[in-house]
């Protein structure tokens, strides 16, 4: 099986080196490059197109979300995971997903969770750190619900949606419910279709707004 090619983008060399050393231990990962900012990254991609980019949220010249937006426009096939030092950035997280990010993780995430997230976005999933998901859910729960309507979802779909709100990947949800990963993927696609959304963050926000979860 071909290794997942990765580029790490962070303005701190020590962070890049630490991530590189850790990820290179996995036989299915290949760190093919590093960059200290958006300009250097775009130059690097001209010769080395990765499967995944690990992108620092805050850098001196431009924010990760702006770089992500450019990447989505020029290289939509590349999966971008944004790394942040702070979980309490609900509005920014939604903007990042709308800009095309496929993952949003806290920088102190456990290494196995980062590895799992990289593999998940390559499979086509969107991955949200559980701390980030919890912050979004807690904030939205504090907002008075004025739009509660009968749920268009089945009980099983609601159960799956609650796991999505906790930040679990399709594979983790499948393990919790003793279903196949393809079955979970099918259900989530149907949930998004019913709720008329295209990513998990907006899905969770809409489900909470309507009082479904």
Task: Give the gist of this structure.
By secondary structure, the protein is α/β, with parallel strands linked by helices. 50% of the residues lie in helices and 14% in strands.
Structure description:
With 213 residues, the protein is α/β, with parallel strands linked by helices. The protein has helices at residues 13-23, 38-45, 64-74, 90-98, 111-122, 130-141, 155-165, 170-177, 181-195, 200-209; strands spanning 4-9, 29-35, 52-56, 79-84, 103-106, 127-128. It is built from ten helices and six strands, in the order βαβαβαβαβαβααααα.
Q: Which descriptors apply to this entry?
A:
single chain; 213 residues; alpha/beta; Rossmann fold; Arc Repressor Mutant, subunit A; 2 domains; 6-stranded parallel beta sheet; 10 helices; 6 strands; 50% helix; 14% strand; Stage 0 sporulation protein A homolog; Sig_transdc_resp-reg_receiver
Number of helices: 10
* Overall outline: globular
* Backbone CA Rg: 17 Å
Flag low-confidence runs: none
Mind telling me which CATH architecture of the largest domain this is? Answer: 3-Layer(aba) Sandwich
Give the tally of β-strands.
6
In this structure, how is the largest beta sheet organized? 6 strands, parallel
CATH superfamily of the largest domain, by name, is Response regulator
Determine and state the CATH class of the largest domain.
Answer: Alpha Beta
- Summed up, the domain count is 2
Helix content: 40-55%
- Strand content is 5-15%
Q: What separation lies between the terminal Cα atoms?
A: 39 Å
What is the CATH T-level topology of the largest domain?
Rossmann fold
The side-by-side strand order for the widest beta sheet comes to 2-1-3-4-5-6
**What would the average pLDDT be, to the nearest integer?**
85
| Helix/strand/pairing category | alpha/beta
SSE topology string: EHEHEHEHEHEHHHHH
Domain Response regulatory: 5-122
Protein name: Stage 0 sporulation protein A homolog
Modified residues (4-aspartylphosphate): 56
Domain HTH luxR-type: 146-211
